[in-house]
Amino acid sequence: MGFRMGIVGMPNVGKSTLFNALTRTAAAQAANFPFCTIEPNVGDVAVPDARLDKLAEIAKSKQIIPTRMTFVDIAGLVKGASKGEGLGNQFLANIREVDAIAHVLRCFEDGDVVHVDGRVDPVADAATIETELMLADLDSIERRLANIVRKVRGGDKEAVEQERLLKAAQAVLEQGQPARTVDVAEEDAKQWRMLQLLTFKPVLYVCNVEESSAASGNALSAKVAEMAAAEGNSHVVISAQIEEEISQLDQDEAAMFLEEMGLEEAGLDRLIRAGYELLHLQTYFTVGPKEARAWTIGAGTLAPQAAGVIHGDFERGFIRAETIAYDDFVKLGGEGPAKEAGKMRSEGKTYTVKDGDVLHFLFNT
Length: 365
Description:
alpha/beta, 12 strands, 6-stranded mixed beta sheet
């Protein structure tokens, strides 16, 4: 299980360039004019994790299978998109299908790259997109409330609950706040997610800077960082141009290029890590001679549900999980030595899987 991240933003901020770099394809046409992305492009990328390579080396695994992350490149949104301006309106539905939003903001000056509003102001761009998503949510809520009026009057329990949640969202949106600011009770969480409100999606601001600012950011990205902190959102600084160049290099060339640019790692790594933190995700591993494989789960996932990520039968017939912490597996040199040292534990249905756990599941067929 990976997760889907929608790449959104104003036209000409570098969305498609970033998408091309991340997926190492030319599927999205990166052109210097608005609305060059006419269809939402979807690309899967392997999630880099040095731990997986180390585990495979120790276990002499024949195959390494990383977990994957899906990027969805969504058309440039403009002011009025919620009312059909530009091409944004037809793509709002694509945002509903992603787990999080990577909001790319232009944090570079370049007279050769036009801005749809004729100025470079990432904070204003962020406000424009947020406003359009809030207006789209309000429109959706009003239509849904109108559709359930009869059921609510008839005392339909599910409709009454839905009305309560919709009105809670409507109240904050009308105050100019996104739906993610609503304090949702635990018992309402599932139904709240089913509302699929655009402004409930977690947001990661991606500051697209010029090459010279890739390591430390610039004045524009600093403003975004301040805004993100005030909102309780996350941000990451990336040069889409650098990422595009790196995507054309082999591993050794890329490492040398990064060193020359004063960067410790590629932007992809930072973006994925920030995405994981944003969605409270973590990784566990299954390791053997045949393959070493990474699996993505939510933080707090219990062992049976973690097993279910591999196959539903594993969850339904779950007996127990044999668990070795990553550090113990590496330090002791594999499953056998770890078991001999008493570092393999047998855990039941109430065990909460930890990030980096090396697991083996026993189940009834």
